[in-house]
Every structure is written in structure tokens, then in C-alpha cells.
Design a protein that fits this description.
Elements (H helix, E strand, L loop, with lengths): L1 E6 L3 H10 L5 E7 L3 H10 L5 E2 L2 H6 L5 E4 L6 H9 L4 E5 L6 H14 L3 E4 L6 H9 L6 E9 L5 H5 L15 H17 L4 E8 L5 E9 L4 E7 L8 E5 L2 E6 L6 E6 L4 E3 L10 H12 L10 H18 L7
Parallel strand pairs: 1-2, 1-4, 2-3, 4-5, 5-6, 7-10
Antiparallel strand pairs: 7-11, 8-9, 9-10, 11-12, 12-13, 13-14
Helix pairs in contact: 1-9, 4-5, 5-10, 8-10
Organism: Cohnella pontilimi
InterPro entries: Gfo/Idh/MocA-like_OxRdtase_N (IPR000683), GFO_IDH_MocA-like_dom (IPR055170), NAD(P)-bd_dom_sf (IPR036291)
GO molecular function: nucleotide binding
């Protein structure tokens, strides 16, 4: 069994625990929150007796082998390094850091402490993403990757009423690019590598984060177009266009239906059976890596996580989106 601690007590951690408990070697051993009351409440909800309000104490406790970090983006690097320096494996929510420089420090800490560090970007582990990779050759020469993730934030109404929820607070390295854009960028890097050029634009909010944006990315013989938003809603699918046909991907953040439409009019549904608790697949990978003594995923590699952050760093530079963590 791999004994996990969790940092963060929001809905994503609930979803993580529910998904992870479908993996046989997962054990939830400890919960961290800034307040004892919240830690106790969350721990009771999930049947855990051990709680912490101090990360150092949790890291030194000897009660966890690995930690899932789902705190605000601005805290990811610092908290991950703290745990890795104590020999604890880290599964860190996306984006893994506020910027590429921070992630390089995380990779160095992982290497020096001989522990596993993996970004918890779930979509690349899903059966339907594997189907995308395995069937991509059918499109012939790929000329365009188009990915769209525009989802009106439930917290935007509060923001418009004069409040400042974390989702729109630059103090926490948040905003549309970091929250949603990464779901378009990471699969692009996984499928096609690092682009040669990045051109970005976005709509900045008064709080100092981006509400929505668009990025055009140039490769040697293809281009990519990425759209993302937390202030509008869209039902557009994503698409990979090749010279022989196109691949339609419904919900790029966790592909649910994938079909190939050829130029001759034939359609092939390549959708695979997939657990609705989609985070289970990244947990399976993470635990398998620990048990096999591996220190890096072959799917969510350090290079891919770094490349995605470098693209977002450049997009933010062009948009004038600066975080205190920078």
C-alpha cells in the first residue's frame, strides 16, 4: 500500500480521493488544512483519523509515502519541494508551478532526493487520449491542432459583484490560462512537441488575471490554435486536422468521445470505455511508478510539464500577465 497525504480540502481533492480509492494499493493516511477545524471536518468525511495544520510536521511524521498537492497554484513549488526534501513522492495538481523557473527547482529537488515528481494532468492518461495517439497516423500529415476549453466560471458572478475569489486572484497564480488553457496546451505538447513560435492575446480583468485568451502556435509544418475562457461558455469540440481527414475530440480536458472523419465521408468512432472517475488513471500511473522504483512518468514527463509552463510563461509575457510568484 502507498500511504497518501492530501494538501488541500476543496472539491478537486474530494474527486481525487473518490477516484484513487478505486486503485487497490492506494491508502489515504493524512489530511492537511490550515485550520484544525477544516482538517478534522474533511478527514471525518473521508474516514481518516490523522490531521495536520503544519506541513513540516506532516512531512516529518513518517505516516505518508506520497502526497497529493491541490493547494493554490502559487504554493505548488514551495510545498512540493518541502515534501520532496523529506523523501516523500509528490503528485502535484496542474499547473505544477507558477512558472518554468519554479518547476526546474522542483525537478532538481526530486532528483537530489531520489523521489517521484509528477504533474497531475489527468487527460493524457485516459483511454480516449491513448486512442488519439494510436490513431493519429490515419489523418495523414497533420496540419492543424485546434483546442478549445471555454467554461464560464461559477465564481465569475461573485467577481462581478465586487468579490475576489481565488480563481481570479493573481496572488495565487490563477486565471484562465493557468486553470483551463493548460488542458489545451499539455496534450498539444504530448502529441506534437514544442512549437517554434508562440503568439498570444487575452482579455485582462481588473484584478490582474486573464479572463480569456487565444494562442497561435507555429510548428515547422503545422500550426496550433488554442482558445480558453473562464468568462464565456462554448460547446465547440477540439479537432486535429490532417491531409486525409480530421479527428473530432469532445471535451479536451477529459476526452469523452473521439471520432475520425475522413475526406471520403467515412466516419470511425474510436471512443474507448472509460471510468467516469477519470483521475483514477493518473493515480494508477503514479503508484505503479513508485512501486517499480521509477522517478519520472513516461507520459507526464518533466520535459512536457516544463515545455507547457514555458509556453504559458511566454503567453503571459505577451499578454502582460504577471504573478507575484514571478
Amino acid at each position: 500500500m502507498i500511504r497518501f497525504g492530501v494538501v488541500g480540502t476543496n472539491w478537486i481533492t474530494d474527486q481525487f480521493i473518490e477516484s484513487a480509492r478505486k486503485v487497490s494499493d492506494f491508502s489515504l493516511s493524512a489530511v492537511y488544512s490550515r485550520t484544525e477545524e477544516r482538517a478534522a471536518e474533511f478527514a471525518a468525511k473521508h474516514g481518516v483519523s490523522r490531521t495536520f495544520t503544519d506541513l513540516g510536521t506532516m512531512a516529518d511524521s513518517g505516516e505518508i509515502d506520497a502526497v497529493y498537492i491541490a493547494s493554490p497554484n502559487s504554493l505548488h513549488a514551495e510545498q512540493s519541494i518541502l515534501f520532496m526534501n523529506k523523501g516523500i513522492h509528490v503528485l502535484c495538481e496542474k499547473p505544477a508551478a507558477s512558472n518554468a523557473g519554479q518547476f526546474r527547482q522542483m525537478v532538481e529537488a526530486a532528483a537530489s532526493n531520489h523521489v517521484l515528481l509528477m504533474e497531475a494532468l489527468k487527460s493524457t492518461f485516459l483511454p480516449n487520449f491513448v486512442a488519439i495517439e494510436q490513431n493519429l497516423h490515419k489523418l495523414g500529415k497533420v496540419r492543424r491542432y485546434f483546442a478549445s476549453y471555454c467554461q464560464y466560471s461559477s465564481r465569475y458572478d461573485a467577481y462581478k459583484q465586487g468579490n475576489l475569489p481565488n480563481a481570479f486572484n493573481p496572488q495565487f497564480s490563477n486565471g484562465a490560462l493557468m486553470d483551463l488553457g493548460i488542458y489545451c496546451i499539455y496534450p498539444m505538447v504530448a502529441l506534437f512537441g514544442v512549437p517554434d513560435e508562440v503568439k498570444a492575446t487575452g482579455v485582462m480583468l481588473d484584478s490582474g488575471v486573464d479572463g480569456e485568451g487565444s494562442i497561435l502556435l507555429k510548428y515547422a509544418d503545422m500550426e496550433a490554435v488554442v482558445l480558453y475562457s473562464k468568462i464565456t461558455e462554448s460547446s465547440l469540440p477540439s479537432e486535429i486536422q490532417g491531409e486525409n481527414g480530421s479527428m473530432i475530440i469532445h471535451k479536451i480536458s477529459q476526452p469523452q468521445k473521439v471520432e475520425i472523419r475522413m475526406r471520403d465521408g467515412t466516419v470511425e468512432d474510436i471512443t474507448q470505455p472509460q471510468d467516469p472517475l477519470t483521475m483514477r488513471y493518473e493515480v494508477e500511473e503514479f503508484i505503479r511508478l513508485i512501486q517499480s522504483g521509477r522517478l519520472e512518468s513516461g507520459v507526464n514527463t518533466h520535459a512536457r510539464s516544463l515545455a507547457a509552463l514555458e509556453i504559458m510563461d511566454e503567453a503571459r509575457r505577451q499578454m502582460g500577465l504577471v504573478f507575484p510568484a514571478d
